[in-house]
Amino acid sequence: MRRIPVPWLPILWVSLLLADTAAAFCGFYVAKADTQLWNEASQVVLVRDGDRTVLTMVNDFKGDPTEFALVVPVPTFLEREQIHVGDMAVIDHLDAYTAPRLVEYFDEDPCRRVDYELGVPSANMMAAAPSGGARAKSLGVTIEASYTVGEYDILILSAKESAGLETWLLENGYKLPEGAGPVLGSYLKQGMRFFVAKVNLEEQAKSGFQNLRPLQIAFESKKFMLPIRLGTVNAKGAQELFVYTLTRTGRVETTNYRTVRLPTGMDLPVATKERFGEFYKAMFGEQARRENDEAVFLEYAWDMNWCDPCAADPLSPKELRKLGVFWVDDPTAGAPGPGPGIVAPSPRRRPGPGQARDVFVTRLHVRYDRDHFPEDLRFQETGDRTNFQGRYVLRHPWKGSTQCKQADTYRAGLPGRFEKEAQTLANLTGWAIDEIRGWTGGSKPAEVSEPQPWWKRLWPEG
């Protein structure tokens, strides 16, 4: 059994997400920086209210399903009804809704416009276990429960000490990375159990799903945290993790690491549109470097019942219920859905009578490794409901031939504006300014018309 490196969870599979260009309020939404930009990116959805938590673990595992294995520390015993198989399309929708986005605006005719505000805005697992509970007992391991949920065979384990647990896992086909023992031991000292999953090939064939679906668990615990250290034991490098939290009160932040807002609202060269993914990855990497690779970044915080500009429509109450938002009623329960796929982006969505209330979404992005993130992530829910989004702006210059004093002033100011946009891009990403000038055409002077006699502007034509 091959054990893949995981944060707390492996992240199994990547589905394709296509987004159409759509108009946005006072501009046009043109691109988003979703998790598909990274070849390997873990996604976790945490629904939290009081001590109640619903955790959805999205996996990016690729390969023979007989080689899939998941070992997750959990704070409490889990009964069969606390474990569920989720719907990947809903996570894709949540990813699209919260993704940092690129919007574009078009300058008005400088001779007509009035000043305006630019805006901010496997074989059966149980049969494979050698000598069952007797061997486990001799190693100090207790198999507290075994379930089959969807295409997964699941065990809930507890143990007296890490060496016995490590031996049991190895004997049962879980190839643990070197150095996993001390990490397992640290969780045992906290009184945590282990949620262990393998694929049941017969059940997978019955399900009709080619890809492994997300696993969900519901439990109560005073700990609002996400164990990530098991995934750093044998990782080849830093790992990308996206955490989406859904709460009643407001924004979620980490308590043991700095939560930093990603730079937002900047004007960038128009040519950035063709390389937005490249820009966003470089920008995120540069910001992480400036924080000594020790920060968690806020990418989105918003009330779930509206958006502006919308990279995707807000999730419906029915979709939120699938993620475990238990305080939201589903008025469409039992009604047929709109069909598979992602809801098309909309220009601007304000609260409506059918929208979910009291659901606030926070999207956090962290790049972590063992040296810079030696502790698990711990969270707190704040009362802050201030909206925030990673949003980057393209402003297309006016290309008309109108002649007026304002047009002359406007055209004369374009070179300085283009240079400022190039400098902003260089500062955000660490890219060389000369290279940016090369592909943006920033070194080319704007055409400036000759001053016109005053009387040519005295009377409009006709």
The residue-averaged pLDDT reads: 80
pLDDT under 50 segments (min length 5)? 1-26, 114-131, 333-347, 351-356, 443-449
Q: What composes the largest sheet?
A: 9 strands, mixed
End-to-end Cα distance: 83 Å
Radius of gyration: 26 Å
Q: Structural class of the secondary structure composition?
A: alpha+beta
Helix content: 10-25%
β-strand amount = 25-35%
Tell me the overall shape: elongated
- Total helical elements: 10
Number of β-strand runs: 21
- Count of distinct structural domains: 1
Commentary on this structure:
- By secondary structure, the protein is of the alpha+beta class.
- It has one domain.
- The protein is built from 10 helices and 21 strands.
- It has helices at 88-98, 125-128, 132-138, 162-171, 180-189, 201-207, 276-290, 317-322, 405-429, 433-440, and strands spanning 22-24, 27-32, 41-49, 52-58, 69-74, 83-85, 101-106, 141-149, 152-159, 193-199, 215-220, 225-226, 239-247, 252-254, 258-261, 267-268, 295-303, 360-368, 377-381, 388-389, 391-396.
- Mean pLDDT is 80; it is low at 1-26, 114-131, 333-347, 351-356 and 443-449.
